[in-house]
Amino acid sequence: MSIRDLSCSVDAFWRRFEPLWERELLASGHRRRRRATRLHPAEILTILILFQQSGYRTFKGFYTHYEQITLRHEFPILLSYTRCVELMPRVLVPLAVYLHTQRGVCTGSSFIDSTSLVVCHPARIQQHRVFRVDARRGKTSVGALLWL
């Protein structure tokens, strides 16, 4: 998906989501004053999604080296890195809702993190009592012992 397609998708989502969210905040009594910023919330959402797709390890590296230099023409009004980080909590709920709406149909295949979980030192395996019934020993692809 190109940056423009992503931006259009997020903007269309925001136009539908914002009135519903404002109404819900008013009804629940949790509405707080939110001043308008130079960067639209849909743009902040787009930047956060682009970061996740970018492969950068840190948001600061992504924002200062890629966003502010390479994507300057896509986002002509950019904030400082510090201000952008301050605005992130404002769009956490909309981001979660947007990502939820973009899920596909479950095919039955799932991917999991296969990081080994070291529970205790091998010398203390006999003393280990947590999940004694469910846990068992195994090895990773590099030969490290682990509990499965």
Task: Characterise this structure.
The protein has helices spanning 3-28, 41-54, 59-67, 81-87, 92-101; strands at 137-139, 145-147. With 148 residues, the chain is mainly alpha-helical. It has two domains: 3-101, no CATH class; 114-148, no CATH class. It has a two-stranded antiparallel ribbon. It is elongated, with a radius of gyration of 22 Å. It starts with a helix and ends with a strand.
Topology (SSEs and partners):
Blueprint: H1 3-28, H2 41-54, H3 59-67, H4 81-87, H5 92-101, E1 137-139, E2 145-147
Antiparallel strand pairs: 1-2
Helix pairs in contact: 1-2, 2-3
Q: What characteristics describe this protein?
A:
mainly alpha; 2 strands; 45% helix
Give a quick summary of the entry.
With 148 residues, this protein is mainly α. The chain is 45% helix and 4% strand.
How many helices does DSSP assign?
5
Largest sheet: 2 strands, antiparallel
Low-confidence runs of at least 5 consecutive residues: none
* Helix percent band: 40-55%
Instruction: Write down the domain tally.
Output: 2
Which secondary-structure class do the elements indicate? mainly alpha
Element-level helix/strand string: HHHHHEE
Q: Approximately what portion of the residues adopt beta-strand conformation?
A: under 5%
